[in-house]
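Note to self: keep these together.
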Amino acid sequence: MVAHWVVWAHLVASAGTLGLAAYVRTLPDRPGAGHWVVALLFMAGAQACYGAGLVVFDETARMLLELATLGCIMWAGVTFLSFTLAYTGREHLIRRWPVLAIATLAVFVTLVGVTNPFHHLLWESFRMDPLAGMATVRYEIQPFLFLVTAGVYTVVGIGSLNLVETATNYTSSSLRQAVIVALTPVVPLVAGLAWLFKLGPYPQLNLIPISFFPHLALDVYALFVRDVMELPAGLQRTGKRAAIDDLGMPVITIAADGRVIDLNAAGERLLDTDTETAYASAVSDLLDTDIDLSKGDQQFEMAVNGEIRTYKLSLSPFESEGGTHSGYTIAVQDVTTEIQRKQRLEVLNRILRHNLRNDLNVVQLRAKRLAADTSDPSNRDHAEVIRSTSERLVTLSQKARWATRALDDVAPQLVSVRPLLETVVDDVRADTNATVDIDVPESLRLEVDPELFSVVFTSIVENAITHNDSANPQVAISATESDAWVRFNVRDDGPGIPSHERAVIENGRESALQHASGIGLWLIHWGVTMLGGDVTFEVADAGSTVSVRLPKSEETADESTPTAEPV
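Structure:
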């Protein structure tokens, strides 16, 4: 009767383990799921072989079932390790030589087991020793089997430590998940020690296969109660590694002495090597340039596919958990195109600001002389067109020069806003009949670059006056404050900014068919962006409103008493 229940207990446990494996197999996209399925299959195999062996009294057949049981137990330990590596985001280590060596040794042990009847390295004196009607056996365990068991225990221990180590570096929920999974081998390990050293009243009974049943119970609890496969402990590590690998920018991790520890995928492509080959090599040798580890950013040139490319290095030191400086991460950015673009812009800016302005001055001088010619009245008309057109181009050139200087050299400082606006208004409305009202508190101060602030509001007010057909353009500047922002509204009574010009700024690019008529709106957009704010354009029947929102510094935010900012 005892034999009946023990056998059925093994077979039911095997069926339950197979059922769990079948369910886990439906989760192929979960980290480690495939490896867990294989581990469960070996556990189920050990339970089924041992349960069947308890009713087989033929010594040869019983010995084969005993070998199959021990083989499945060993391979369950090996695949448990591969599962923990995949589950904790370290699946790439499975293909590294230490894990491959463990798998190779497991294959060797399997072959030793199959041929044991010829050399007796695992056991000798195999004999039947029935217990309570069960076909239990006895044999003398040899030192090699002790060594193999110790190896299996070591492999399982490494897997469990890997789970706990990973989880302790992340969230408490991940820690609970990993501890549950790490505890699952404990009962089989205790049962293995009892069998190995013949402890207990029935040393001929191997309790390892049936001990997989509590292992199975913990697995089910981890899977269905703790969602162990939904948000596994290593998912954060996998995500971080994927983020670095998918960054597209080469990232090199080096020790404090400059030797390579790791490369991401882009780094391997840049250096035309892999992490294993580059490991412990001097980073200066790999990049073929001297790297100064005391500097945060530096540039170097390197030949790539026969082309000289310029790269920028950004070094970031990192520390160990104990706070000791351990090394650096180096982000490598290809800045060749950026440098070439900057050179082209410098040349074009020089042509626009210098050559074009000088040549237009010549055109203006000639136009004045042509206008002085009274012999042909049409010449005066032509001269006036030339003069007005060249003046617009000179003004455009001056704006470009002013904008370049303001945008290239931003130096924020705490300034009073109203005096700046008054200076802007006085300069813009000179020689016009425009009326500009300023409703901005004298106490309002912001941390901005004064010249860039002036460029922005000069462009806004000038645009409001210049494009207003009224004999007396009306412009009003007001400011409202909130906790962290100041919103300036510049209203005019003109025809409004054309929709196609606003669309260019909103889209952020120009084309041959859609472009702005000048650079005024671009100056507003660029300037406000560099000041850390945003700008919107609204057009109504009564005119336009340009809204500029700028951030307060902590000092000005603490000083002010905010009013409700209009949405």
